């Protein structure tokens, strides 16, 4: 009996070991299955998220393209409005167009204050020359046969010249020896006729001259 018992003992141990291993494997299998189910659920969730993000991305792309097209249209419209041809239509008859602004040179003569009033009545003001191109191309020295008032004055403070819109005068085109406040009573600026080599002169505001409006 003892001999038999000693023979069966290893087999019993072996069976117990096998059972134990089976239990462990079953347990591991169950855990892996649960993990697989959880991963499948997570995969579906990520796929839905990816689909939503793709749709959102497409919507953003469409918005971007539509905004870009809208911007291009607005830029094109702005350029049309600024083009000389478009602006010409907006300037009154007998006004000249230059760099998207309207200019008027009178044929009548008035003093400086009355000249300015005439410009304002047209929704304009006396010419301000703060762009080199305006003086050098549009009203170049030598292009005038008669003097013409511009929006330049030192009537507020003698010797301090300002434009009619209140801006200081930075670049100047005074003729030789000007401004000289001749006779102590020259507070208004004019473009000088070509025979006198052009440029600017300070003149008595009461003088009757042509005038130039700008708007
Ligand atoms: Ca003066
Ligand atoms: Ca003068």
UniProtKB/TrEMBL annotation:
<feature type="domain" description="C-type lectin">
    <location>
        <begin position="98"/>
        <end position="214"/>
    </location>
</feature>
<dbReference type="InterPro" id="IPR033989">
    <property type="entry name" value="CD209-like_CTLD"/>
</dbReference>
<keyword id="KW-0175">Coiled coil</keyword>
<keyword id="KW-0430">Lectin</keyword>
<dbReference type="InterPro" id="IPR018378">
    <property type="entry name" value="C-type_lectin_CS"/>
</dbReference>
<dbReference type="InterPro" id="IPR016186">
    <property type="entry name" value="C-type_lectin-like/link_sf"/>
</dbReference>
<keyword id="KW-1015">Disulfide bond</keyword>
<dbReference type="InterPro" id="IPR001304">
    <property type="entry name" value="C-type_lectin-like"/>
</dbReference>
<dbReference type="InterPro" id="IPR016187">
    <property type="entry name" value="CTDL_fold"/>
</dbReference>
<protein>
    <submittedName>
        <fullName>C-type lectin domain family 4 member M-like</fullName>
    </submittedName>
</protein>
<dbReference type="Pfam" id="PF00059">
    <property type="entry name" value="Lectin_C"/>
</dbReference>
<dbReference type="InterPro" id="IPR050111">
    <property type="entry name" value="C-type_lectin/snaclec_domain"/>
</dbReference>
<dbReference type="GO" id="GO:0030246">
    <property type="term" value="F:carbohydrate binding"/>
</dbReference>
<feature type="coiled-coil region">
    <location>
        <begin position="39"/>
        <end position="77"/>
    </location>
</feature>
